[in-house]
Specification:
By secondary structure, the chain is mainly α.
Length: 547
């Protein structure tokens, strides 16, 4: 007689675990593809790269990263300290204006700076007219298209990452610590160095690491300024030399740098422990500055806003207003629609998948989904060029196999279903920005009292019904913010879009790049202005949420 063991665990199919696995595989696939292509190249040019171009690519990338790191750390920390601890003319406005450079992609800033400062631009033309100089040999002017200018442009666009985190850290610090330092005779400078800066160091390190990751993955700025970095090396080796293996090997170097930055940032946070000394946190009592110190503080906070937002936005706006012919070009409207479509679909898919994953992990409580959750954030650390390389080659291989199979069965050639359409771009956006949506969803679910879904389940609601009726109404604000952030980042994404876009398909970012590459900055201004306006909307909503 067979007796069933009722205590034996039964394996049941869990859609939440399966969904988490699918999402994790989707994120990891392009990175694994890059690794596979790099380790099994058709033509091994790694020794040639080591002997020729790779040291130059690596050297320029490291110098850019170091320069940008110093500038963003100093700019973001100093401005955050000033607006948090002092009163001076314009402080209330500057506190939010310092966020505005986030609205302008760095490559648009590069185009604007070049148009303003190049030999034929208004600055040098005005100087020649004012002083009677005949040509460039009569005077000295810094080289505009250089590694140094690229560093300034990138730092002006990226310092808000440090500013945001440092400002939050300064606001959360205990006022008692500053009071004690003041009673011990420490002046403003010593209080900053001995108390404020050490307590905010983990936040500053995080913001600086993010800026360095954005720098090493940048393509638009360095390509326009003719600075040969690892990212431009990926494009050159793959598209011009036709060697995907060599490009993948360069991409591995980029990924190693990015993962090293992530590891350093996490190690810095793990080794730093700071705790609040009291349950009642008094608000920061700002010190009123007077005289030249007040105006110096206003100048120091206004300068990065002027370089990072006012100057590029002003140049692009003037050029866009003058170029009336471009506004009436039907291709611009088509480009706008293409951008709204792929970015909107990508944002909706990304946020939906993030909701499914986070809710599933919380609901199932199983080890596999929880273990896979951190894996899904790796895509944000991968530069767009690396994702493009990792997605295009396996998708192209699958496309040809699918097309051959359909033609063999039905006698019809369907063409390239993934790489020949916007599917590849949307997948790249989903993988690239999934970490943003996942972080927003996880934070939003954490703020919902567990008693509410438990009550709904006890009244007979299914898991899906509880999500629709209880969670979504409560977290709709966070979900809307995540949709907006993913949408804006997708609108600004350039390297992955350049690599994965189908033939004769443009987004606003690629149209700006194409026109600027032809030295037609005036033609690039209208789509660039559209990108700025989209980014500005997101920044204004972010500033409102931080009040």
């Amino acid at each position: 007689m067979h007796i069933q063991n009722l205590t034996a665990p039964r394996l049941r199919f869990s859609p939440w675990s399966a969904g988490a696995l699918v999402i994790a595989v989707l994120v990891v696939t392009p990175l694994a593809s890059v690794l596979w292509i790099a380790l099994t190249p058709r033509d091994n040019i790694w020794p040639h790269l080591l002997a020729t171009t790779l040291p130059r690519y690596l050297g320029n990338s490291l110098i850019l990263m170091a320069s940008v790191a110093v500038m963003v750390a100093v700019t973001g920390t100093v401005t955050a300290w000033l607006v948090t601890m002092y009163r001076f003319p314009g402080r209330r406005w500057l506190e939010w204006l310092l966020l505005l450079p986030l609205a302008i992609p760095a490559y648009i800033g590069a185009y604007a700076i070049t148009d303003l400062l190049e030999y034929a631009g208004p600055v040098q033309s005005g100087l020649r007219t004012l002083f009677g100089w005949a040509d460039a040999r009569a005077y000295w002017f810094p080289e505009v298209r250089s590694r140094e200018t690229a560093s300034v442009v990138l730092a002006a666009a990226l310092y808000p990452y440090v500013y945001l985190l440092a400002r939050a850290a300064f606001l959360e610090q205990s006022v008692s610590a500053f009071d004690v330092a003041r009673t011990l005779g420490a002046g403003p400078w010593r209080r900053f160095l001995r108390v404020g800066l050490p307590l905010a160091r983990p936040a500053i390190a995080v913001g600086t690491a993010i800026a360095m990751m954005e720098t090493v993955s940048d393509f638009g700025v360095v390509q326009y300024f003719a600075v040969q970095t690892l990212t431009t090396g990926i494009f050159t080796t793959w598209l011009e030399a036709g060697n995907a293996g060599g490009a993948a090997q360069i991409a591995l170097v980029v990924m190693a740098i990015v993962l090293g930055l992530v590891a350093l940032e996490k190690n810095s946070r793990r080794r730093s422990r700071f705790y609040q000394m009291s349950r009642q946190q008094r608000p920061t009592e700002r010190i009123t500055l007077t005289g030249w110190r007040a105006w110096m503080a206003s100048f120091l906070c206004a300068l990065p806003v002027a370089i990072g937002f006012v100057l590029p936005a002003g140049v692009i706006t003037v050029l866009a207003v003058r170029n009336t012919a471009e506004w009436s070009d039907p291709r611009l409207l088509q480009t706008l629609w293409n951008t709204l479509f792929v970015s909107g679909v990508a944002a909706a898919v990304t946020v939906t998948a993030a909701l499914f994953l986070v809710y599933g992990v919380r609901l199932s409580g199983r080890l596999l989904p929880r273990a896979l959750l951190p894996v899904t954030t790796l895509g944000y650390a991968a530069p767009g060029a690396v994702l493009g390389l990792g997605l295009l080659l396996p998708m192209a291989w699958a496309d040809h196999r699918i097309a051959d199979a359909i033609e063999a069965v039905f006698g019809v050639d369907p063409g390239l279903l993934m790489t020949g359409t916007t599917f590849a771009i949307i997948v790249a956006y989903v993988v690239r920005f999934f970490a943003i949506a996942q972080g927003a969803a996880d934070s939003a679910f954490g703020r919902v009292s567990p008693n509410l879904p438990l009550a709904a389940r006890s009244l007979g609601r299914s898991a899906g019904g509880t999500l629709r009726r209880i969670h979504l109404p409560l977290i709709s604000g966070s979900i809307g913010t995540a949709l907006l952030l993913v949408f804006v980042d997708a609108v600004k994404e350039l390297p992955a879009t350049l690599l994965l876009r189908p033939f004769n398909f443009d987004t606003l970012a690629t149209r700006v790049y194409d026109q600027a590459s032809l030295e037609r900055i005036s033609a690039a201004a209208p789509p660039a202005l559209m990108v700025i306006l989209v980014g500005l909307t997101a920044v204004l909503i972010l500033a409102r949420s931080l009040k």
